[in-house]
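Example S7 (structure tokens).
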């Protein structure tokens, strides 16, 4: 049997890129989205099926491709694993800030639609409450999980699940963007959003396996399937919500939940590094963290927004 040690490291690093290229080619030639305009008079079932297909392609598939970097990260020394965890924290931080911006934009949309001062104030309180409440609840769960994990060697697996939950809540917001674009017949925007989410959800898969690689033992395959579905699957639900029941208030609530989860997950990643290293502040953590923020900025703000505005 050929073990991971017998495979050159560069092949482990390049493998997911090759898979992405193959999948992108298949999607291009098979045109999986079909004719959007033809769905104008489609039944609710047909629209939900289309949103499900799009959700799997934009959410679950890229997260799965990103997780294919697990053998490569697992082959690295612990110092480099810490660097990959810092990279994932940077990715998560950018996502959290982006979600806060989206909350503000939805509040502005409510104001533009004529919402009263009292309604806007109540919405603001709801947004802050969902952020704080989610952070607190996940912190309680995290403390219970950490107490149960004392003496165990699979702390990284548990943090990987926490990351997947936080990313899954973020995926609801991505689905809302796709669903509302579809509902308003902005079909070109749907395609661009799918491309953008595919690219940046690959990095989400990478952030999950960075935590899993910290453990000595490789988790069973069903854990990879579970965290992939947790991180990318909620995009399907978000797209359904965006098509059939979108409102700025709903968006703010879900985004607030996502922000609270993301903040708690960054805390978890920091503690995971502290668990092994003497300090969490150093060149091997600061540089990758900044790199994660820059990477997401290039993918989201430069690539996706640039194409949308073109």
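Recovered sequence:
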């Amino acid at each position: 049997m050929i073990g991971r040690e017998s495979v050159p490291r560069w092949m482990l690093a390049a493998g997911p890129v090759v898979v992405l290229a193959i999948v992108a080619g298949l999607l291009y030639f098979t045109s999986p989205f079909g004719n959007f305009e033809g769905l104008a008079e489609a039944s609710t079932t047909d629209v939900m099926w289309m949103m499900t297909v799009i959700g799997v392609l934009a959410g679950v598939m890229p997260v799965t491709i990103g997780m294919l970097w697990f053998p490569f990260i697992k082959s690295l020394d612990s110092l480099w694993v810490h660097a990959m965890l810092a990279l994932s924290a940077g990715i998560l931080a950018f996502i959290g800030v982006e979600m806060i911006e989206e909350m503000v934009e939805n509040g502005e949309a409510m104001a533009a639609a004529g919402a009263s001062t009292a309604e806007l104030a109540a919405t603001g309180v709801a947004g802050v409450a969902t952020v704080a409440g989610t952070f607190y609840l996940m912190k309680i769960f995290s403390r219970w999980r950490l107490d149960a994990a004392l003496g165990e060697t699979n702390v990284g697996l548990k943090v990987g699940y926490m990351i997947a939950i936080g990313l899954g809540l973020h995926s609801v917001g991505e689905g809302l963007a796709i669903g509302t674009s579809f509902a308003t017949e902005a079909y070109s925007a749907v395609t661009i959003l799918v491309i953008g989410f595919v690219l940046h959800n690959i990095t989400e898969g990478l952030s999950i396996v960075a935590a899993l690689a910290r453990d000595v033992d490789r988790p069973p395959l069903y854990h990879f399937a579970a965290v992939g579905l947790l991180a990318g699957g909620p995009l399907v639900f978000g797209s359904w919500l965006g098509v059939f029941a979108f409102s700025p208030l709903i968006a703010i609530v879900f985004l607030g939940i996502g922000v609270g989860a993301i903040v708690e997950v960054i805390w978890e990643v920091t503690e995971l590094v502290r668990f092994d290293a003497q300090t969490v502040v150093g060149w091997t953590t600061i540089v990758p963290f900044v790199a994660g923020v820059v990477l997401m900025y290039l993918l989201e703000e430069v690539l996706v927004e640039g194409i949308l505005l073109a």
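Notes on this example. Residues 42-309 form one domain.
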